[in-house]
Amino acid sequence: MPRANEEVEALLREYADLLAITGGDAFKARAYEKAARAVAGHHDDLSKLDLKQLRAIPGVGRSIADKIAEYFERGSVAVVEEARARIPAGVRELIEIPTLGPKKAMLLYRDLGISSIEQLVDAIHDERLRELKGFGPKTEENILHGVELLRQSGGRVLIDVAMELAEEIVARLSSVDGCVRCTYAGSLRRFRETIGDVDILAAAADSAPLMAAFRELAVVAEVIASGEKKTSIRTGRGLQVDLRVVPPESWGAALQYFTGSQAHNIRTREIAVRAKLKLSEYGLFDVETGELIVSRTEEEVYQRLGLPWIPPPLREDRGEIEAALRGELPELVREQDLRGDLHTHTDLTDGIAPLEEMLDAAAARGYAYYAITDHAPNLFMQRMSDEKMLAQRERVRALDRRSGMRLLHGTELNIDPDGGVDWPAQFLAGFDLCVASVHSAFTQSRADTTRRLVRACENPHVNILGHLTGRQIGHRAPVDADFDEVFRACARTGTALEVNSFPDRLDVRDEHILHAKRYGVKFAIDSDAHSTRDLAQIRYGVGTAQRGWLTPDDVINTWPLTRLKKFLRKPSARDA
DNA sequence: GCCGTTTTCGGCCCGACTGTTTTCAGTCG
């Protein structure tokens, strides 16, 4: 996302929060929230748009467009400044506490002058909340508990952590008597890169046995709430899991609803409202008669709204509704479309499995081709040498066609701070393909990083840019670069962009994919496996690619080997 | 504050659960 868009999104969100805290028109606050979402998802750099173009963004009207323009002109917005002056920043912090919303936050500030989490905790211990209307002993307890949670966790977990937990729970609940169907929904089904909580959906005539089994799962550390239709628990490591049980005939409507995203659901419900229908998790109803129209399958629900079924990774209100209405939804790349993996390691460098084991595991996945790309010498700790690499090439050549798989001998090069890579051109020419990645100097200036990445693209032997931004979710920030410039270079030079499937990387991420695709960039979905187990993580790369609207044609490792080999001979290398 | 193939006014997604009430407001997703 362009930095300007990010700033405006944050500003609009802050103003929406401040409006909610001060009360008044709730719809006004919602309008700002909606505009914030629209701005975050907008592909153009907001700072380069005029008033008319700003107003063309759905959810941005005259007033908000003026405020955005004011922000770029003066660096601030007068009404937001005024709101900030009325409500201390600490009050806004209060609504980060689970169970504490804008109304309670305002009451705490207005009646007790509380404007920080610390003051709130002190006030509870001094029993000063007891005098407030609507605050009982249970509320105090919930607030203290919420503060504790806020302190000990950033909240979200990596997708593989959530997926493993969800699959375990689904398997357990599916075996409960009377369970007709069970699956995970929510952001996990949409393959978001991190997961705030896990949503499990089950269908059964009687919910009680499922709720009981759920509360008794070994992973449960705390039951947050439990009713007939919904139970929420928290696991030992602090992850919240919600179970919703619906009647079997409501399955489709419920799955659609609980898959989200919220923004997508708002759009589908608006379509329903315009057609004099009402969409809820129980079905699509006629508003006037209250009669149920459809609810059994997601396909029926979408169809009755005049839409084809929309794959969950697209459901972010990023244009999928419009594309669906036009009949132009992409045929998304699927895991079974992948014919090979183009970035993998062995124990010759930092992998943990020998070449043969990696090959056996890859062949078991049904791949037609497979690239071995161990690290190059400039990653000094890996102790790579020309001799080792050439010896590995001999072994790879000897093992070619084993289990029917064609092998490609490659390497993962290190892009140095100037954009150069490990070996001279002559040595590089001996590889079937080269991935090139940033492994050092992550904090260069934007201009230097941009030049560095573009130079790597211009190298005739670099076929794939590996984990472009170098980010490690929750640990290391992405490098700063003019990515538009880099994407243009990728497209121009025939360099593919990697979608690295490691759950803490997922790099490039969905937003970069959407952006790069507009320039005609091609992609490689790679596991970057360092063990046989890692090969299966490619599912997360596929999910990320789907979130970026990629089709098989966009992804070079879905192509037949002959087409792939042609792509791997860059135009600049052919001339040389 | 935004928006329009019923609308430039009058709507705005909708339901579950909790806690504090005694019929409902607040929070959440």
UniProtKB/TrEMBL annotation:
GO cellular component: cytosol
GO biological process, one term: DNA repair
Start and end residues of each DNA-directed DNA polymerase X domain: 3-316
Domain of life: Bacteria
Record bears the keyword Oxidoreductase: no
Every Helix-hairpin-helix DNA-binding motif class domain range: 52-71, 92-111, 127-146
GO MF: class I DNA-(apurinic or apyrimidinic site) endonuclease activity; DNA binding; DNA-directed DNA polymerase activity; exonuclease activity; phosphoric ester hydrolase activity; zinc ion binding
Keyword Phosphoprotein: no
Required cofactor names: Mg(2+)
Span of domain Polymerase/histidinol phosphatase N-terminal: 340-417
Catalytic activity: DNA(n) + a 2'-deoxyribonucleoside 5'-triphosphate = DNA(n+1) + diphosphate; 2'-deoxyribonucleotide-(2'-deoxyribose 5'-phosphate)-2'-deoxyribonucleotide-DNA = a 3'-end 2'-deoxyribonucleotide-(2,3-dehydro-2,3-deoxyribose 5'-phosphate)-DNA + a 5'-end 5'-phospho-2'-deoxyribonucleoside-DNA + H(+); a 5'-end 2'-deoxyribose-2'-deoxyribonucleotide-DNA = (2E,4S)-4-hydroxypenten-2-al-5-phosphate + a 5'-end 5'-phospho-2'-deoxyribonucleoside-DNA + H(+)
A Pfam family of this chain: PHP
EC number: 2.7.7.7, 4.2.99.18
Signal sequence coordinates: none
CDD domains reported for this sequence: NT_POLXc, PHP_PolX
UniProt entry keywords in alphabetical sequence: DNA damage, DNA repair, DNA replication, DNA synthesis, DNA-directed DNA polymerase, Exonuclease, Hydrolase, Methylation, Nuclease, Nucleotidyltransferase, Sodium, Transferase, Ubl conjugation
Cellular compartment(s): Cytoplasm
Chief place of localization: cytoplasm
Role according to the record: Repair polymerase that plays a key role in base-excision repair. During this process, the damaged base is excised by specific DNA glycosylases, the DNA backbone is nicked at the abasic site by an apurinic/apyrimidic (AP) endonuclease, and POLB removes 5'-deoxyribose-phosphate from the preincised AP site acting as a 5'-deoxyribose-phosphate lyase (5'-dRP lyase); through its DNA polymerase activity, it adds one nucleotide to the 3' end of the arising single-nucleotide gap.
Protein name, per record: DNA polymerase beta
